[in-house]
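Our consortium's second objective concerns turning raw sequence data into structural hypotheses that experimental partners can test. To show how far this objective has progressed, the report includes one record in full. It was chosen at random from the queue rather than selected for favorable results. The single chain below, 438 residues long, was entered without modification.
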Amino acid sequence: MLDRRIQTTLKEQFSSPTDKILIIDGARQIGKSFIVRHEGKAFFRNFVEVNMIEDRDGARVFADVKGVEDFYVRLSSFAGRRLGTKKDTLVFLDEIQAYPQMLTLLKFLCDDGRFSYIASGSLLGVTLHKTLSVPGGRIEVKHMHPLDFEEFLWANGVGDDVVAHMRSQFEKGEGLGEGLHRRILELYKTFLLVGGLPQSVNAYIETQNIHRVRKVHEEVYNLYKEDASQYSMAEKLKIRRIYDLIPSNMENRKKRLHFNDIEDKKGKAARDYEDEIEYLISAGVALDVRAISNPVFPLIASVHKNLLKLYMNDVGLLSHILFRNNVTAVKDDHLSVNLGALYETAVATELLAHEHPLFYYDNKKKGEVDFMIDDYDSLSILPIEVKSGKDYTIHRSLDRFVSNPEYHVKRAVVLSNDAAVAQRGSTSYLPIYYSMFL
């Protein structure tokens, strides 16, 4: 079994009294149901699971629930012998977005307190956006992502002591030493190929066969494209087109989404595709990185809505599309191949997994910087540049950004494959895998 960081959240939820129902939100195929099932069965004598999508497409037992008592009657129709008390019974409402009215009912189930509850949703962001009567104060939504690099290290047998040593070296501003650096960098390159989808990670660990891993990627990629079932055919086609454009956009210098390309029509803008873009983001299959041209702390105050980058939610899916079964481009750092898209996607997923909203710097006169995050310790902005090549010390846009007195930048970070940790002025040069500690 793969260890996941969210297990700590689930254990705290199950072991202490709470008046809130936890909902695990995230894209499909990232392991939500598995981890809830695993932890729920460990903590509760009675574990009752209801998959609302299966119910909607089958018996429709919960399709028109009229209230708490009606819900209990329907629940007991197939789980009666496994229903005890709040202390010993956990009811898991999986894929709750299939019945949006169930989100409203959660408040009353929570207040009634007959059993313990937890829920999950694969398209929950979309559903919450459209549900008018979400019970505020009763629901806590926790976003789950594919495995980040630390979780990938755990899966590959790297123990907590090694990760703790890496963190300590990062905090001291020191590198790992050549031997450990080579080992961790090799695993990082493997992470670029495999990604963090649990099925692909398990396939790699069990077989070390890239063909098996890519088969998982192909299945999930097609699933994500087909998943917009609640939309009309015209809207679904736009969603698929936008999703298909992400890899090619990542290969461009600017990497932005060009709205004219979606339907091959001139004069298109973000407002023409708001719903389709929001679907991809809310469903968790695309990560949005918002442009800021004149950054101030906090960054959310300066967002430019029309300049948008979309990244795939998993770097393994992107490497599958770009390189298929050829691993040498990534493993051997081919000079003829631009690996920037992979490295940027990996950093984007890492930052988001650690709850950093994603922004980038785009200024017509002063250039572009890959990422910016809020630095709450110094109440300033931390610009981050990701470099996949050997010329990682050359970054004119970042230099202009840091030297601009209006931005009040205290420090900047450049991430690369180099083992050394160095400081030049206010810019720190760090190994790419140290992104897990930012």
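The partners drew two points from this record. The mean pLDDT is 91. The first strand starts at residue 21 and ends at 25. Both points have been shared with the crystallography group to help prioritize constructs.
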